[in-house]
Write a structure and sequence with these properties.
Blueprint: E1 2-9, E2 15-17, H1 20-26, E3 30-34, E4 40-44, H2 45-56, H3 63-74, E5 77-79, E6 86-88, H4 91-97, E7 102-109, E8 111-116, H5 117-137
Antiparallel strand pairs: 1-7, 2-6, 3-4, 3-5, 4-8, 7-8
């Protein structure tokens, strides 16, 4: 399970250090792709396989389903860590997440997310202000 928040920077070659706590869960290969809310989603192979099965269930006769699947897969890339625990982020993904240098890597259950530091700060501020209301609407019992 991925959890926690880690601040990192990408280097001039587009490489990002993946938190040590996440590396053991990723295995030899993992997948990065466009995420929601302007971040990137990272999946270990087992979670990616589950996601593929869910996407395969979407009705291809629906325009929105086709558009979502197309956009989601078009930027997906299989990645591996180098000896220093870094991943090379493709320019398409850097642009999608608007990452300049500083970023935040966040664990989210079966995946992790990579955010630009600026976008994460805005998201976290808004989520913190509405956390109780969000929880109330979720019909989730702690």
């Amino acid at each position: 399970m991925f959890m926690g928040e880690f601040k990192h920077s990408i280097d001039s070659k587009g490489r990002l250090i993946i938190p040590a706590k996440f590396r053991s869960q990723l295995g030899d290969h993992f997948v990065l792709t466009r995420g929601m809310d302007g971040c990137l989603f990272g999946y270990p192979q087992s979670s990616w396989t589950k996601m593929e099965k869910k996407l395969d269930q979407l009705p291809m006769n629906k325009k929105d389903s086709r558009a979502f699947v197309r956009f989601f897969y078009s930027a997906a890339t299989e990645c591996e860590l180098d000896k220093q625990g870094r991943v090379n982020l493709p320019e398409t993904l850097i642009d999608h997440a608007a990452i300049n240098k500083k970023c935040v890597v966040v664990g989210v259950s079966d995946r992790f997310e990579i955010w630009s530091a600026e976008r994460w700060a805005k998201f976290a501020e808004k989520a913190a202000a509405n956390f109780d209301e969000i929880a109330e609407e979720m019909d989730f019992d702690f």
